[in-house]
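Hypothesis: this fold can be encoded by more than one sequence.
Test: take the structure tokens below, design a sequence, compare later.
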């Protein structure tokens, strides 16, 4: 039986834990916003090939999520030490990914693809080794519905500023030094230092709060990677009714948002039609402010209703807004101000703030359901269940970026045809057909994909009411009392 240590979760401990999100978020956001642009504009990799680099590296690592999740749930595995040991390798590989080594390969697309795919694979492997223990540990130290939301809300608020760092610094440094080729590597180094510091702060905050589950005297020792056991574990998890809808919601939401986020550079310059230096500063500023303001609101809505309802409200507004922008046009101005510089990041921020505030808390709810249905002798699978949606998260994000590259190529965009790497970043495409494609990648297409996500969210049956009914019956089962399933039909 799991021992809850909720009483040890002081505000200081919660804040220390929450800062751990910076270790992954600032790296995650710089990668998803700029890496395709870096490969295309700085290294002259063709857009569809750059999309394939990202898709392969993240897609492969998404598969390893399940194995790492299974391994970190093993008795005797200390999640705190696991995340702490992954911090430095993650940061080193991240810096290497933004190095201009690829320019040494000349015009060889193949060598560039091989090198940057290999480095990206390592980034996401260590990213997973950090994030799965980081997110899973909350499910072990508290089962309180609102406390989980509050901790995730605190983490999401910090995440809003991390998104700003990951998105704004490359642009700001690039403007300051006048060359994006060297800006990326310098920013990557600075963000890696911040990531390392916050990662170690997080690990320190868990000392005395989290305690690894030790094997019982009669429990057999598990060896190897446990591929067969991992497959069995995820087969059992997939059979849980809410899981299918939850995973499909995650996949489609992140596919749509990653496509839009990775297209921000092109949206500002080619669709809205403003100077990159001026436009990206406004976009990132509005995005950070929107998330900083809306995350506490999302948390309150969750407390008044539940997590599913809060997500439906905020993400629906985001999707409908994108469709409206397509009808109005990204070049719309009000009093000389380009309206979409503020409206598009506002819509993006609404969706992101809702998703990242509740995403992992929704996964935690499934931990209790899995224990109720599949658990034996108090067995819990926090990491496996946290790793499963993270697998889908990465696969969805990689799919969105891949689609962006494919669609831009299909519309005829070719950055290598421009006069130079840094110049190409700022020179507006004159072909209206190509610009229309870029506009669709920022509005119509992600809105349609996110709408599909909302359908699966509506079908997701885990609400506050069903969760409370579940935990009541789970408590009876743990204590050896009579329990029933009359109120759990929607979950079973």
């Amino acid at each position: 039986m799991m021992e809850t240590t909720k009483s040890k979760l002081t505000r200081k401990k919660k804040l220390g834990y929450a800062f751990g999100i910076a270790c992954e978020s600032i790296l995650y956001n710089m990668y998803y916003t700029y890496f395709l642009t870096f490969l295309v504009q700085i290294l002259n990799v063709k857009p569809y090939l750059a999309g394939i680099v990202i898709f392969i590296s993240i897609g492969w690592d998404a598969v390893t999520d399940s194995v790492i999740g299974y391994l970190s749930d093993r008795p005797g595995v200390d999640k705190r030490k696991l995340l702490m040991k992954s911090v430095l390798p993650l940061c080193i590989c991240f810096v290497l990914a933004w190095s201009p080594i690829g320019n040494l390969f000349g015009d060889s697309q193949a060598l560039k693809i091989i090198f940057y795919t290999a480095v990206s694979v390592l980034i996401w492997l260590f990213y997973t080794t950090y994030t799965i223990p980081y997110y899973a540990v909350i499910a072990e130290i508290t089962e309180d519905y609102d406390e989980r939301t509050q901790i995730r809300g605190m983490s999401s608020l910090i995440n809003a500023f991390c998104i700003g760092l990951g998105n704004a610094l490359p642009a700001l440094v690039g403007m300051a030094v006048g060359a994006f080729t060297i800006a990326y590597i310098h920013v990557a180094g600075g963000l890696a230092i911040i990531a390392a510091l916050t990662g170690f702060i997080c690990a320190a905050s868990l000392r005395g709060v989290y305690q690894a589950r030790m094997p019982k005297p009669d429990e057999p020792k598990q060896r190897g990677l446990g591929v067969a056991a991992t497959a069995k574990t995820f087969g059992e998890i997939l059979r849980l009714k809410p899981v299918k809808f939850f995973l499909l919601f995650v996949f489609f939401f992140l596919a749509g948002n990653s496509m839009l986020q990775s297209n921000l550079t092109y949206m500002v310059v080619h669709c809205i039609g403003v100077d990159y230096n001026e436009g990206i500063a406004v976009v990132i500023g509005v995005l950070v402010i929107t998330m900083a303001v809306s995350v506490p609101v999302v948390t309150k809505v969750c407390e008044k209703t539940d997590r599913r309802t809060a997500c439906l409200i905020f993400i629906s507004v985001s999707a409908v807004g994108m469709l409206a922008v397509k009808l109005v046009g990204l070049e719309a101005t009000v009093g000389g101000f380009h309206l979409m510089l503020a409206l598009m990041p506002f819509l993006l921020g609404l969706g992101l703030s809702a998703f990242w505030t509740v995403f992992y808390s929704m996964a935690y709810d499934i931990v209790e359901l899995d224990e109720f249905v599949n658990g034996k002798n108090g067995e819990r699978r926090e990491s496996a269940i946290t790793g499963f949606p993270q697998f889908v998260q990465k696969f969805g994000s990689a799919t969105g970026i891949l689609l962006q590259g494919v669609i831009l190529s299909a519309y005829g965009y070719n950055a290598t045809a421009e006069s130079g790497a840094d110049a190409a970043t700022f020179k507006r495409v004159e072909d209206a057909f190509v610009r229309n494609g870029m506009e669709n990648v920022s509005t119509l297409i992600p809105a349609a994909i996110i709408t599909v996500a909302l359908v699966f969210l509506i079908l997701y049956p885990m609400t506050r009411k069903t969760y409370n009914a579940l935990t009541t019956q789970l408590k009876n089962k743990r204590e050896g009392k009579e329990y029933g399933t009359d109120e759990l039909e929607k979950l079973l």
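The chain has a mean pLDDT of 84. The chain has one domain: 8-212+227-460.
Hypothesis status: open.
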